[in-house]
Amino acid sequence: MTRRAKQGQDDIIRGEARQTMSWNEAEILAARRKILKSAQDMLAGQLSYIEGARNIVTASTKARLDERDVDLLPFVGIVSETDALPLW
User: Fold this and answer.
1) Helices and strands: H and E segment counts in the chain
2) Which one, of 57, 64, 72, lies nearest residue 21 by Cα?
3) Backbone angles phi, psi at 38, to 5 degrees
4) CA angle 26, 28, 29 (to 5 degrees)
5) 88 vs 85: CA distance, rounded Å
């Protein structure tokens, strides 16, 4: 058994569910960079919070983030409450 397979087996025994990386790691990393850039731009006043939240939620799926992550939920709420508003 490989070291990686053994680690995965140990995680299951301990009750931990590890999410394996997609085969397209470059896509995941690019999505995570987009999330970081959107957050930085919102804090710097270069991107509206509505547009930034939309960027973050859109990229979160490709970034393989858990949709129930407490850090992501406020952005999901913003998008949900403002989906009818236009960006200006």
Assistant:
1) 4, 0
2) 64
3) -65, -45
4) 65
5) 9
CB contact burial 21-46 (16+ within 10 A = b; e otherwise)? eeeeeeebeebbebbebbbeebeeee
Residues 30-35: what's their mean pLDDT? 96
Name the residue type at position 41: D
* Chain position carrying tokens 């590890």: 18
The answer to whether the Cα torsion of 68, 70, 72, 76 is positive or negative is: positive
Beta carbons of 52 and 39 less than 8 angstroms apart: yes
Q: Which tens digit of pLDDT belongs to each residue from 38-77?
A: 999 999 999 999 999 999 999 999 999 988 899 999 999 9
Q: How far is CA 33 from the centre of its chain?
A: 10
Question: Over 60: is that where the pLDDT of 22 sits?
Answer: no
